[in-house]
Design a protein that fits this description.
alpha+beta, 3-stranded antiparallel sheet, 3 strands
Length: 111
């Protein structure tokens, strides 16, 4: 007797393998999306801090530069937008950048 077709075991094994592959693929896709979001936030942070540093360096009032590098200062993203250094799309909301000089390096912190 010659029977053609698949046995129940073969079908269950195939479904299990497909399930395992689907699970592994979904985890990779989720990790990729999370990594991409983190990279976007890091990029926005770099844009904002660089714009704040440029604002201080190009500011006509030299007191701002001295104040920021000695005691620290706060610059809002609205100030950077009005100066034309960043666009509204670069920031999610109104943020404050704290700038101070530590160990001969400029440190920017976004609040």
């Amino acid at each position: 007797m010659n029977k053609s077709g698949f046995t129940l075991i073969e079908i269950l094994c195939t479904i299990a393998i497909i399930g395992i592959i689907a699970t592994m693929t979904s985890f990779n896709i989720i990790n990729f999306i999370n990594t991409n979001n983190d990279t976007t936030e890091e990029t926005k942070e770099k844009i904002i801090t660089t714009a704040a540093q440029v604002y201080i360096e190009l500011d006509q009032n030299k007191d701002l530069k001295e104040t920021c590098f000695t005691t620290g200062c706060n610059i809002t993203t609205d100030t950077l937008i009005n100066a034309g250094l960043i666009s509204k799309e670069d920031v999610d909301n109104k943020e404050v950048i704290n700038i101070k000089k530590e160990n001969q390096k400029i440190k920017c912190t976004i609040k």
